[in-house]
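User: Can you help me understand a structure? I only have the sequence.
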Amino acid sequence: MASTRRPTYTPVRGKETSGAGSRPGTQEDGGTDDVISASRNVPAATGKPASSGRIPPGKTSTGKASPGKDASAPGANVLAFPEPKGRRRRRRVLAAVATVCVLVAALLAAAIYSPVLALQTVSVSGTSLLAPTQVQAALEPLKGKPLPQITDDEVRRLLEPLVQVKSVSAEARPPSELAVIVRERIPVALVKQGEQYQLVDVDGVQLATTADPAAVSLPLIDGGAGAIGQDLFKATAAVLGALPADVLAKLSNASAKSVDAVELKLVDGQTIVWGNASEKELKAKVLAALLKVPADPKNPVQVYDVSVPRHPVTR
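Assistant: Let's start by predicting it. Here is the structure, written out as tokens:
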């Protein structure tokens, strides 16, 4: 509050005024000028700050609280708006999802690297040419490795030296077992090599050895081991690979004068004229049906010609 006291005038001895152009308050001719003094009353404390013409912090010139200032300042007006429910819900959902992801990652890490799931036992199925112990021995380097880290590719790579294995798959059975399912190559013929006979598949891969060909129900391919990989061998082996197991067991030998003239011999002495390797699946079905026809003692069949499978001939 501004002071209501007015300035007072106090006369001083001497001249009242100086001449024109002189400045008040200076001495001339040994006199002194009049002195004007002013004083103000200090207002008593009323609980309100005196106005000094300055805008208090936190207010604008209109007296309203300025944005961003302390809302607790006297005279400030604050409006509090509640957070929208949708935003709160989204925040909670995101927090829950983040928590679940962290837990899942921790569980996966524990499963992948935990020694509790280390491989201890290998079970083998699907083998006939191989003994299960051969497969287990080849997979011995996997012992102690956590099951989640073992892949089919790793199992296949370890079994590559076993030529009898055509394909393989592995299944983890926690806590410590690995089930290995082996698909072996199928022998379709015998090939003589010295005093031994090699069991070979359609690709000519040598799968096993026997000294007694009669102990194996497979036909003998003419030409010996030197014929493996040749065109005639491939044509003959492709024909044998198309035959069902029961028909294959009835054959004694197979030969080919050319890739278009494959012939088979049955253990009973009949001849099968096969022709080339085209339509081998249809030819195999027709031959299987012909061999099931009861034999006629008066007219025994000596030749089964399935080179044209839609028009087979017996004679």
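Now, to help you interpret it: The longest helix spans residues 85-113. Residues 14-32 have pLDDT under 50 and may be disordered. Let me know which part you'd like to focus on.
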